Amino acid sequence: QVQLVETGGGLVQAGGSLRLSCAASGSIFRLNAMGWYRQAPGKQRELVASITLGGSTNYADSVKGRFTISRDNAKNTLYLQIDTLKPEDTAVYYCNYISVTGRASGYWGQGTQVTVSS
Asked: Is residue 26 predicted with pLDDT exceeding 80?
């Protein structure tokens, strides 16, 4: 079955950095594009970064220049390097597979909480 485990979140001061990791299912990881999503309380979950099988990346305007998504196919792991954290980055961060339709799979991990203090 699909299994996604996000780690690396925490409490950090504004301007600081975090590196999130996503351990994914090895059976399908290398066959799909991947994305990082985040959801703040009272807000919709949003895609903030994606990476294709070939390594091409895209970012939401709100995070471009500060977030870097990468993948290690040998380790079946997705990463999100977050720099220059802002309070508005506070959210639960999730990883997921991205289908050919551009939608996330229906299987979500527990997410990892990122809290940025001012």
From this structure: no
